[in-house]
Design the sequence.
């Protein structure tokens, strides 16, 4: 590529970059950024609410599972004691 071609590409890129900065910094672009950020924040809040619900459900499930295991252990202990009791006869 000739030197003139490289210079032309550099200048074209510079002009395109300058126009891009002006477009990105415009009021319309800022409005889009603001609405996009607001939508993101709403989405984040909904996700966090669902995460809290799942965590609460997991805590309930864990508590129920521990209660089931405790009841089974008590039944097993009662059965063991009943089997170990001497038979009078």
Sequence:
């Amino acid at each position: 590529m000739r030197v003139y071609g490289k210079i032309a590409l550099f200048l074209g890129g510079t002009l395109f970059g300058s126009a891009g900065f002006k477009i990105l910094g415009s009021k319309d672009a800022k409005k889009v950024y603001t609405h996009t950020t607001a939508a993101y924040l709403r989405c984040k809040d909904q996700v966090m609410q669902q995460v809290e619900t799942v965590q609460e459900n997991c805590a309930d499930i864990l508590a129920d599972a521990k209660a089931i295991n405790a009841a089974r252990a008590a039944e097993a202990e009662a059965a063991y004691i009943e089997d170990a009791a001497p038979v009078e006869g």
In short: The first helix runs from residue 3 to 24. DSSP finds two helices and no strands in the chain. The chain has a mean pLDDT of 85. The two ends are 111 Å apart (CA to CA).
